[in-house]
Amino acid sequence: MKSILRSGKRRTAIARAIIKDGKGRVLINGKPLEVIEPKIVRMKLTEPFLLLKEKLRTSIDITVKVKGGGFMGQADAARIAIARALLAWSNSEELRLKFLEYDRHMIVGDPRRREPKHFGGPGARAKYTKSYR
């Protein structure tokens, strides 16, 4: 039985997707994709499947494990992992070009991270204020 493991990262969230032969089931942290809440996260996670051929969609099972970050960062990380796994499974240049045209961050990822706090203020850029009156 063939299986492929791919990962995706977004800020501090890390997702691992395992793809193998099956019946079209998609599990995110043990939950079916259809029951994931909020709806915006579910929509984000279904984007890679909208660009797939139906025959490929119903012949594979995808299991995703995500940890770290917030719910939206986890959704982005899972989406990247799913898209990369689908590309590795299908080995299709046509699908790769579809993903790139639809949204480049589905494959490439986003390198932005949080800037660390500096001295002299409550955050990275803001400074404490002082009144002289």
The total tally of domains equals 1
How does the helix and strand content classify structurally? alpha+beta
Shape: elongated
Low-confidence segments = none
Biggest sheet descriptor: 5 strands, mixed
Textual characterization of the structure:
The chain has one domain (3-103): Ribosomal Protein S5, domain 2 (2-Layer Sandwich), CATH 3.30.230. 35% of the residues lie in helices and 23% in strands. It has four helices and five strands, in the order ββββααβαα. A hairpin with a 2-residue loop joins strand 1 (3-10) and strand 2. The longest helix has 20 residues, at 71-90. The radius of gyration is 19 Å and the shape is elongated.
Can you give me a brief rundown of this structure?
This protein has 133 residues and is of the alpha+beta class. It is 35% helix and 23% strand.
Helices and strands, with pairings:
Elements: E1 3-10, E2 13-21, E3 26-28, E4 31-32, H1 39-50, H2 54-57, E5 60-67, H3 71-90, H4 93-102
Parallel strand pairs: 3-5
Antiparallel strand pairs: 1-2, 2-5, 3-4
Helix pairs in contact: 1-3
Spell out the key features of this protein.
133 residues, Ribosomal Protein S5, domain 2, 4 helices, alpha+beta, five-stranded mixed beta sheet, elongated
